[in-house]
Amino acid sequence: MKTKIHACLIIWVGILVFSESVLANEPIEPIIPATEINPAQVELGKKLFFDPRLSKSGSISCNSCHNLSMGGTDNLKTSIGHNRQQGPINVPTVLNSSLNIFQFWDGRAADLKELAGDPVANPGEMALTHALAVSVLASIPEYVSEFSKAFDSGDIDIDQVTTAIAEFEKTLMTPNSRFDQWLAGSKQAISEQELAGYKLFKSSGCVACHNGKAVGGNSFQKMGVVEPYQTKNQAQGLVNLTGKESDRFRFKVPTLRNIELTYPYFHDGEAATLSEAVDIMGRLQLGKQFTVEEIAKIVAFLKTLTGDQPSFLLPVLPPSTDKTPQPKLFEN
Ligand code: HEC
Ligand code: HEC
Question: Coil, strand, or helix at residue 173?
Fold first, then answer.
């Protein structure tokens, strides 16, 4: 009995020392606000992000689906696009999206600039050709002068449009979450329950896929490692790009930053609550059946990842002119 206690004590001290050394080197790093940005392009990109005239119907802006008042998402299972078409997949947040190695669930866009042109022309999203988007902007004198201030070259082109939007998106970082304060040494920033959740998050193996600044966003992983994921959603993941069978159902690991705000969860939006998402992750990715208490701890930890939300004055958009092409509300 005595030796048993003794051995326990040694292991216990060992764990303590071990966890102290791990503390100095956490698998999650703090969010750092963007520093190298072009202010004129950011201001222009902000307007474009909120401008519904970049859609055929004149009614859908980037902010319609990536609502910056709601964590950069629409909080719907799948989004509603042109002609009120139901989208095929859940909207990922635009917050901290510059940290992603690739954009989209299947990584088909390399960066924010490459991506920004896609939703404008996507028939299920904003449904406006790039040529028409440019002619709308070019018909508005305030935009013309703002573009020429932000870019040296003459006429507005789609490259400038996507560059400005991407520059604005770079500013959508959410630093200063309570967890980041804790990482910076402020031990009171999170509660015991939240800390216990973080320890469980690490010891269970969640950090194998959810790590780094964004707590995700930096690898493609199979959804359903231990047990297959059942869904009616048609999305197949990375296989779309590579054609490799082993990439079927491999998706970009979503960021867990601001996860409290970006419900519902998974590419099909089928998990309505964070508890449900954590329970499914435990079973399908790690073969672990968490208890209700364990799930509550992990959820409590995940909620400490909500950072300072972008805050700025709503941009006032310059009015259309007689030359501006008219929106076409219900037309394919
Ligand atoms: C109709 C809704 C809708 C609109 C409008 C829309 N998006 Fe998206 N956005 C989506 C959906 C859905 C996805 C995920 C698509 C996928 O992965 O296949 C997405 C993905 C993204 C991503 C990738 C994030 C990530 O983690 O991979 C970024 C960035 C983004 N959109 C920016 C924009 C910008 C900029 C605009 C405006 C030019 C815009 N979106 C307009 C629905 C929309
Ligand atoms: C093998 C890699 C892997 C492991 C381990 C893993 N995840 Fe995930 N996680 C993913 C992938 C991939 C997705 C996206 C799946 C999808 O939408 O189909 C995801 C999605 C999520 C989501 C939903 C995010 C969103 O925006 O929709 C949450 C929450 C989450 N994981 C939490 C956890 C927790 C908690 C653990 C540990 C119990 C964990 N994950 C373990 C890869 C992993």
Answer: coil
Would you say 33 and 174 are in contact if contact means Cβ atoms under 8 Å apart? Answer: no
Tell me the per-residue pLDDT of 291-330, one tens digit each, with 9 for 90 and over: 999 999 999 999 999 999 999 999 999 999 999 999 998 8
Structure tokens at 202: 């690490």
- Å from CA of 299 to ligand 2 middle: 13
Produce one character per residue of 141-180: b if its CB has 16 or more CB atoms within 10 Å, e if not: eebeebbeebbeeeebbbebbbbbbbbbbbbbbbebbbbb
Q: Above 80 in pLDDT, residue 24? A: no
In testing the pocket of ligand 2, which one of 201, 265, 281, 284 has its CB within 8 Å of the most ligand atoms? 281
Residue 14 scores a pLDDT above 80: no
**Ligand with the closest atom to the CA of 201:** 2
Nearest to 203, CA basis, from 301, 274, 306: 301
Q: Spell out the domains of the chain, with CATH numbers in brackets.
A: 18-32+175-305 (1.10.760.10), 39-170 (1.10.760.10)
What residues does ligand 2 touch, defined as CB less than 6 Å away? 201, 204-206, 208-210, 221, 223, 225, 251, 253-254, 256, 259, 262, 265-267, 277-278, 281-282, 285-286, 298
Q: 57-104: per-residue pLDDT in tens?
A: 999 999 999 999 999 999 999 999 888 888 899 999 999 999 999 999
pLDDT of residue 9: 42
Using a cut of 0.70, tell me whether the model's pTM lies above it.
yes
Residue 258 alpha carbon to ligand 1 centre in Å? 17
Nearest ligand, CA 71: 2
Q: Would you put residue 104 in left (φ > 0), alpha (ψ -120 to 50) or beta?
A: left
The set of catalytic residues is 125
Nearest ligand 1 atom to the CA of 254 is 26
